[in-house]
Amino acid sequence: MSGFEVLRSGMLSLYVDEGRFGYGDIGITQSGPADRYAARQANRLLDNPPRATLIEVNMGGLTLRATTDTTIALTGGTAIIKINGRRKPLWHTYTIIPDDTIEIGMITQGLRIYLSVIGGFDAPQYLGSTSISLRDHLGHVIKEGDHLRCSTADPLPLPRTLPPRLIPTYDPEITLRYIRGAQAEMLGQDIETQFTNTPWKVTNATDRMGCRLEGAPLAHTHEILSEPITYGAIQLPRGGQPIVLLGERQTIGGYPKLGAVIPPDAWKLAQARPGTTVRFEAISLEEARTIDEMFWTLW
User: Fold this and answer.
1) Strand ranges (E), the chain
2) What is the torsion angle, in degrees rounded to the nearest 10, for the CA atoms of residue 218, residue 276, residue 271 and residue 289?
3) Beta-sheet pairing, 62-66 with 3-9
């Protein structure tokens, strides 16, 4: 069988593609890669379509043995990567032959690494997507002994690497730009000013659903009826500690929202380790559109 045998599954390894769309009305989340940028660049290095299935390795620890000739690409957080025992850099492609071993060590900067294969992995679909959704119990996590099948495709003739200017650094301090939301005026200017002036800290209560932050509480007594929630939404519970929602978020919620982090920035939270300092900067819709257009040209 063409593909890879899983020798060690790591902390949490998942199939992902661009996500699951059109099922929010029945409570099925989008899912997809937590770090959209690294995932898209992993496929881009191999000329794969953006929706090609790849592996998201959370925290590291994945070891595979190849059973086919192919080319892979590795992107994302910092870890010791070895192919047949030799260290290799990330953001690069590698030609693989049968019996080659690929080892992804524990991640020391960032939280996630993406492994793509030329042509994409051949994974089962659930509601039109191969993305595993832990929240909705769609699919199962990759485990030791699994065989990861991949499409049959000729290996790339030459290795490729992403230009240094496109390789992100996972810094201990990040700034996230956001668009003000419908409830910002209800919460009041004082809360919004405090929100943008506060250096928030990423807590341990962070996963693929979202990121809970900690700082000087933004106390309020406002409530709203539950309503749909977008990617990057900044919820503000009564306790005053913000929550930024990511790809595997719930589909509706009743906490007021200060706004939404723009997609070109939201992926940074997927790589933000506990203790990372987060600051927020409000921008206009026009600015957000310009940033979005410029960002996607990098992909």
Assistant:
1) 3-9, 12-16, 54-58, 62-66, 70-78, 81-83, 86-88, 92-96, 101-104, 109-117, 147-149, 173-180, 200-206, 210-214, 227-228, 233-235, 243-245, 252-253, 257-261, 277-283
2) 50
3) antiparallel
Shared domain for 28 and 150, answered yes or no, is yes
Residue owning tokens 């953001």: 91
Residue 193: what residue type? T
Same domain membership, residue 10 and residue 140: yes
**Bigger pLDDT: 285 or 156?**
285
Tell me the per-residue pLDDT of 122-162, one tens digit each, with 9 for 90 and over. Answer: 999 999 999 999 888 898 899 999 999 997 778 888 899 99
Single out the residue of 78, 92, 75 nearest to residue 33, CA to CA: 75
- Say whether 245 sits in a helix, a strand or coil: strand
The residue from 102, 134, 166 where one domain ends is: 166
Rounded Cα distance, 235 and 242, in Å: 6
- The answer to whether 62 touches 104, Cβ cutoff 8 Å, is yes
Query: What is the pTM for the complete model shown?
Result: 0.94
Q: What is the CATH number of the domain that holds 198?
A: 2.40.100.10
Residues 6+ apart with CB under 8 A from 30: 19, 20, 21, 24, 231, 247, 248, 249
* CA atoms of 50 and 17, how far apart (whole Å): 8
For residue range 44-57, list pLDDT tens digits in order: 999 999 899 999 99
- Cβ neighbours for 297, distance < 8 A, ≥ 6 positions apart: none
Encoding tokens for residue 228?
Answer: 């749909």
Query: H or E segment at 108?
Result: none
pLDDT band at 41 (very low <50, low <70, confident <90, very high): very high
